[in-house]
Amino acid sequence: MSSTPLPWTRVDAVLVDLGGVIYLPDHDRMRAALARLGVDPSPDDLDRAHFAGVAATDDFTSDHSVWHSYNLAYAKVHGVPDDHLDHARTVLLEEFAKGDVWTREIAGARAALVAVAATGVRVAVVSNADGTVEAQLRDDGICQVGPGAGVEVGAVLDSGVVGVAKPDPAIFRLALEALGVAPEHTLHVGDTPAADVAGARAAGIHPVLVDPYDHHPDADVVRIRHLSDLLPLLGRSAR
Ligand SMILES: [Mg+2]
Questions:
Q1: Topology of 13-22+104-233 in CATH?
Q2: CA–centroid distance, residue 176 to ligand 1 (Å)
Q3: 144 C-alpha vs ligand 1 centroid, how far in Å?
Q4: pLDDT tens, 167-213?
Q5: Burial of 116 (0-12, 13-18, 19+ CB in 10 A)
Q6: Angstrom distances, CA of residue 150 to CA of 44, 87, 118, 207, 231
Q7: What is the pLDDT of residue 128?
């Protein structure tokens, strides 16, 4: 979908964000929360609302500001009227704060991760999360550090564990160190411009923006709709 020329010539490693790339908020959980607001959402709106939420998220100075913007845009997608938006933000904040919301696997994401790794690139996960993602990925059989049921990755960087979060380039540098790769030969695939694109660039890494609903048509970044769209951009064939 992107007409931006590829700014890389060789790819040794791919870093992968989780929310919006591998997982989305669970439909049953979000439907129950939205029912408290009198909303009965369609499945497509539930997924689209996430991407509207991250598109509205540009202030990463605190968790509060991140979720304030996200939840406001999330509620608007579902047609919550203006005079109910404050209540909607509170309800959504409570639901996300309960944890275990990011469990809906995006169709085809697992297969795409397998295919990316099969090209021979090194892979690591870089996620702003609550310290639980390494166990979740392992339990779901998606990926793990070392051999296992899923894709073998070089590292899982969870901000809740390492103590630095995107867009701080420090979390990306930890991934580069773990994989032993150079930033100019590394891509980071994520869905949030302010965290993933800005953070990767600050570390000298090439960002790739997952933008399935075309929220960022004018963004000066390589855009894809789904992780599987990365494969033809790697300049490698599966080994
Ligand atoms: Mg994300």
A1: Rossmann fold (3.40.50)
A2: 19
A3: 19
A4: 999 999 999 999 999 999 999 999 999 999 999 999 999 999 999 99
A5: buried
A6: 28, 40, 12, 24, 18
A7: 95
Give me the pLDDT at residue 61, please.
Answer: 80
How far from 123 is each of 98, 116, 199, 201, 239, CA to CA, in Å? 30, 8, 18, 18, 15
Q: How many whole angstroms from 19 Cα to the centroid of ligand 1? A: 4
Q: Tell me what pLDDT residue 104 has.
A: 97
Q: How far is the CA of 44 from the centre of ligand 1 (A)?
A: 18
